[in-house]
Every structure is written in structure tokens, then in C-alpha cells.
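Q: Is it fine to ask for two folds in a single conversation?
A: Yes, each is treated on its own. Send the first.
Q: Here.
A: Result:
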Amino acid sequence: RDRPDAALLETVLLRSQSRGEGMWNAERGAGDLALLRVPLSSFGDASDSAPRGAYRPLPSLRGGTLHNRFVGDWLLYGRPAGGAGEHALALRFAARDEPQALTLGHGVERIEALGRDAVLVGNAGRDLHFTSLRLQGNEARVVGSHVQRDAAQGETRTHGFFYRASAQDDGVIGLPVLGAATGQRGRRSESASVLFLRNRALNLAAVGELKSSPSRSTRDDQCQASCVDWYGNARPIFLGDRVVALLGYELVEGRRAWRGWPGEKLEELRRVSF
């Protein structure tokens, strides 16, 4: 929402052909895209419709699945299937500028905010790519990237990603990852590891991973207390200055060590199984 002319506007990205919101159906939409912007005060008892002039047509991308996110004054969207010419689109929605094409070279499976900027995550072949975007003024610009070889996301939902900012352009990203052979939403008994990246002025570098203990994580309790299918089995946790990974039934804590560029490395400090 933004506040032109002192009126709150609701901004929503819409697609012309939907399969409903049940389970994975929302990920398989198709058709034309449009941005709907209407005053919040116009919402009522659903007896009225938005005027045609409230819709702004937007360029569509090939394929059914689409990932999008609003970051500040920007709408970012792209599709998972990636290749050498793959791109995403960035629109400063409060202005009347045309959408800007962002050349990535990988698919878009996740879009997250890094403070006022953003990171786009997705695979190209067997490798997982992270691309940082500077969202400043009227320009969206690719700044940095990191490639995690032979990897894929271990959790595709929003709660798998965490970012702890230590300054305006400085912070740490945490994201569960799996081997690429397992693929997205791979179902296997062991937990993913949690990968940590350092963001410095949108330059990204891996600082380490916290991994589960195979002997403990493979015990099958028939989901009495936990289940990979409904919470992803792994997630990063930032607690004050401490860095922790939840990996199945284990909590693994890391500590920072300094050794050359990019300077900070994450090493396992201790673990406990509950």
C-alpha cells in the first residue's frame, strides 16, 4: 500500500486464468497479468466491482507458475524454469514507468526483501543461484550473485527464508538447501542443511552450512512430533547474535570465525537433539 493524495491504495497482482487456491492449484495459473490499484475506502460488501481503469495490463511470462513479491515501491515477478536467457521483471508500481527486464540466467523460485533491496533465488540446471537487486530511485539493477553448486531449495515456502540485517547494506541470509538430485519438495528421511550467505552492499558470499547428523535425523517416528511434509524439516533461526539451525529433531548452533575473504566463516559450535 502507498499513500498518493493522502488515500490508501491497495495494490494486487492478478492473473486472468486461475485454478483456485486449493493446495498447489494457485501455482498453476495462466493467462494475462494485470495490476489492480483501488482505494482501500472503496472496499465494502462485495456488491460493486472495480472499474476497468483500475487495472493496468502487465507483460506476461511464458509458463504457468509465477513467483511475485512487493518490496517497497516495487513489484518483482519471474518464473521457475530458467535458462541462459531467463529474466525477471521489475515494476515501480506507484509510477507509470514501464516494467524493467532483469537478465538473470536462472529461474525464479523465491523473491525476498533484503531491507529496501531484494534477492531472487532459483535453479539453473543442478545449481542454485542467488541474485541481489538494488532497488533505488527509478532503477532496478542486478548487483551481485552467488552460485551454490549441486543444490536446490530444501523449503520453497516463505518461512524457510530468514534475513538478519546488521546495517543498511549488511546482513546474513539463511536458507535450507538439498542436493540437486533430490529436487524441490524432495521427500527423503534426512534433513536439509541450512546455508548461510553474507550480504555486504549486495555482494553475496557463502559463510558456511549447518548440517544434520544422519544417524539422528533418519529415525522414523511416523510424524508423531514432526514431519518433513508440513514444515520443511529445516529452518534458520537468528536469536540475538546467535545463529541456529533447526534440522529435524536437532538444534545446531554455529559460531563465527574470521579467515580471509569474505572474512566471516560459520562453524558448528554445538548441537542438541530433542
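Q: Second one now.
A: Result:
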Amino acid sequence: MTFSEQLSADIALIEPALEGYLSRETHEGYDRIFEAAKYSAMAGGKRLRPVIVLEFCRLHGGDIKNALPFACALEMIHTYSLIHDDLPCMDNDDLRRGRPTCHKAFDEATAVLAGDGLLTAAFETASKADVPAETALRCIRILSENAGMNGMIGGQVLDMLAEHRRISETELRLLQKLKTGCLLRAACELGCAAAGKTDTESIAAARAYGDKLGLAFQIEDDILDIEGDEKTLGKSIGKDAASEKSTFPSLLGLDACRKLAGELTEQAVAALAPYEGRAFLETLARSLTGRKS
């Protein structure tokens, strides 16, 4: 398969599985919460994180069907974070994935609960995986550690505290390592765990790929917030400047950012050099450099 064909095949597995986990008819008066959760979860997006879960599982010779519940769980966590990030009390965004944000399409309270519901559903979904209990426990730990207060949530707190003030590059790297990088690193580790790979070398390579890719991805995101097209991106642009946030372009300049993103991408690729089946993940990493959406 070509890269595009494999990517399409992965997404074709993820989409119906994700929708299936979130499809429920209660007929007891609270179906609206499932509607709101599905509205955001099924709005499209790159599905980057769940694809990486499947591909790291495949890289290590695992059955990607075993990894699919964990891939969907991670996408639920990612979507919940976007719903909450868009709320008026946080980034106050009106547009996400090309359509009105959850609190605009429904209401603020429903959006909060939809995010809460997706976060909880993620762990319910992970617990349903048909894998040994030890593997399920390992994957649930990876999800919780990277999504929690020492991971993505911690990064979101640092992001809020960084508004309207200039922070150092060191502080910014930590912020983005937590806020963006943790879920990407989790995707890599989940794929390894689902394939039964727990050795030090495999985990170190997965973490290196995820960390470098996560930082490169965020730098590209910062560039797109300046140069991107709102229609192509499917979300508002110029928000960083409006919030007076320190970003990589504001600290380093656009040219230096492009160079750094390229270097980080190649470092991510280099982390997988020992593995024969690395071609897809190499191409995926490079496809995100200079992206338009």
C-alpha cells in the first residue's frame, strides 16, 4: 500500500469504531449528551493520534484490532480537550474542525458535560479491549498519566498562565511538551503496549518519536496561526496574538521555526531507524512539516 492508501485504511477502521462507541439510544431524556459528544468527535480532523496508535502496534507486529479501542479512547480524550479548550472561560473559540464549536452548536453547560462524558467514555472504551488484563492496565495507565495533571492538563494550566506575558523558550517547550506532546507520546506508547512490547528500547524509541513529533507539530501549529487560512484550517486564526501568548514564532521568528520543525521531524524519524516497518511513520512525520491544515 502507498502511504495515502494506508492512512485511508486506518481512518476507515477508526471512524466506525469511534462512532459505534458513542452511539447509544437511551430514550430516557438524556440522548442530547450523546448527540453533543458525537457532534464534536465525528466532526472529522486528521485522526493523527489514533492512526499513530495503530501504526506503532503494526510496527511491532501486533494485531491492530487489539489497539483500536485504545486508539478510539485517545481520540475521545483529544476531542474532550478541544471542547473544553474552546469554552468561553478558556480560549473562547467559535469554530472547530470547520463548524461551530460544541458550546455554540448546543450550549455551554452541554459542552462541559460532553467533554466530561468523552473523558469518562475513553476509560470505559479502553477497558473493553480484548487483550490481557495486564495490557489493558498498562494502556489505561498510559492514557491517565499523559492526559492528567502531570500531562496535558498541566500544559493547559501553563498555557493559561502564559497569557499576556512573555515567557522563555524553556518555559514554552515545557508547556507544549505537556499540552500537545503528551497525547502524541501516549499514542506511540499505546501502540507498543497493545502489541505487547514493553522492553526499554521500544518504549524509549516510541517516546522519542512522540516527543520530537509533538514539538514539531506545535511549532507548525504556531506558524499556521499566523499564516494559515481559516477555511482550510477549520478553526480561527490569530488567536495567539490576540491573547498575547508567547509562541515559537514570537520568540524565534518564522524562518528559525521552520528550520527547527524540520530538524525535530528528522530526529523523530531517526528514533525509528532500528525498525524495518518504519516507512509509514517516517512519511507521516514528514507530511506534517509545512502542512496547511
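Q: Anything structural to flag on that second result?
A: Two points. Residues 200-227 form the longest helix (28 residues). The longest strand covers residues 95-96.
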